[in-house]
Amino acid sequence: MKKKILFFSTPAFGHINSTIPIIEKLINENYEVICYSSKEYKEIIEETGADFIEYKINFNVNEISRYTSNFVELLKALISLNQQAYKYYVDKIDYTKYDLVLYDSMCSFAKNISYKKKLKSICIETTLAYNIFVFIFSNMFWKSLKTFCKNIKELIKNIKLEKAFRKQYGLLKLKPIDLFVNSGDKTIVLTPKEFQPFYRTFNKNFYFVGTTIKERLLKNKQKYKKYNYFIALGSIYKMDENLLNEIINIKELQDSKTAVLIDKKIENFDTYKFVEQLSFLKDVDVFINHGGLNSVYESIYLNKKQICIPMQEEQRLTALICKHKKIGGYSKKFTNLKKQLKEIEKWNRNLEKYSLIFKSYDGTKLAYEIIDKYIKEGL
Predict the structure, then answer these.
(1) Same domain? 10 vs 109
(2) DSSP states along 149-215
(3) Which of 67, 180, 227, 280: CA 20 to 30 A from 203?
(4) Range of the domain at 300
(5) What is the pLDDT of residues 268-306, one digit of tens each?
(6) Do 354 and 371 belong together in one domain?
(7) Domain CATH for 29
(8) Distance between CA 317 and CA 321 in Å, rounded?
(9) Tens-digit pLDDT profile for residues 134-175
């Protein structure tokens, strides 16, 4: 009889895309996976062989993503979302059918349900892992300190509400780190330990398994033109048209073969509304991105020079790691990009070394083995 896994996903492309190879591996190894997500990911999930069920609460991840540069607002939004999800799903599902709850790190409600229903749980971190050392000794805490102080009353209010919520429903007591880390019985982090800040400070139940890029790369076979530069900065263009103009007026970009991921035409540039990024990057010399973890990892894996122009706190941390390890440039402002382009070799001199490190990991295989072993423990 097949073992059954209940997977609560975060319905955002980067999160879903990273976990798809793991779901496929579980299905191929004779597990049954039931995946909760939003309807726009129905097709991609069902293609793995998993059963798709649409969330009945509003997982407006795009709305939440607006707050990622303000931790107080982000915490407020995530606390509210996860409380709603817990109250709705704690008694809507027959959990006795399942052998494991698998959940994305943003889904603390799944951790709470697992505790309440006495089910084994595993958290999948599709971002970097965070603990007190990462917060204090990275740029994230100090950059956000002013925001915390300014919003201290609102922060304390929401912490009290979360404590009261957990007490009301008989859940584990809230620890401050719980606001940022939703580790399960085991936590699988889809990053190599060589890239993770302070990885030795995490407990033995954290597993840094590497990426799932190898499997995703095999599926991306679309052909594109060759480019000297590829610019993909997420929603930054929508935030400020002037920022876009600063970039496209750089002569080095105008005089080269440059592609921009944007839904509009730009003189002297090729533009695309959507690309299969792994396939696209194969024929790109320099990738100018916003420091998103998927983009950074794909650039490193494919041994492509990159420059990060981050706009949010977690992107700044990723960009700083790239700068420190010399596997990518870090341009704080768009006006610094011209200088970064001239120094591209300097900021990417360790790129080949880290590309080999990333390729040495088989994140999909390692993640599967951890899940499989944990389910079978005690049988």
Answers:
(1) yes
(2) HHTHHHHHHHHHHHHHHHHHTT-PPP-GGGGT----SEEEESS-TTTSTTGGGS-TTEEE---SHHH
(3) 67
(4) 222-360
(5) 899 998 899 999 999 999 999 989 899 999 999 999 999
(6) no
(7) 3.40.50.2000
(8) 6
(9) 877 776 556 666 666 777 787 788 889 999 999 999 999 887
Can you give the C-alpha Rg of the chain in angstroms? 21
Q: Alpha carbon of 146 to those of 8, 158, 315: distances in Å? A: 34, 18, 19
Kindly state whether residues 10 and 36 are assigned to the same domain.
yes
Task: Please indicate, yes or no, whether residues 161 and 277 belong to a single structural domain of this protein.
Answer: no
Q: What is the number of domains present in the chain?
A: 2
DSSP-derived letter for residue 264 is S
CA distance 277 to 156: 41
Residue pLDDT, tens place only, 70-120: 666 777 788 888 999 999 999 999 999 999 999 999 899 999 999 999 999
134 and 11 housed in the same domain: yes
Residue 191 resides in a domain: yes
**Does residue 216 form part of some domain?**
no
Give the neighbor-by-neighbor strand order of the sheet with 227-232.
270-272, 258-261, 227-232, 284-289, 305-308, 329-330
Residue type, 252: E
Reduced to 3 states (helix: H, G, I; strand: E, B; else coil), residue 16 is helix
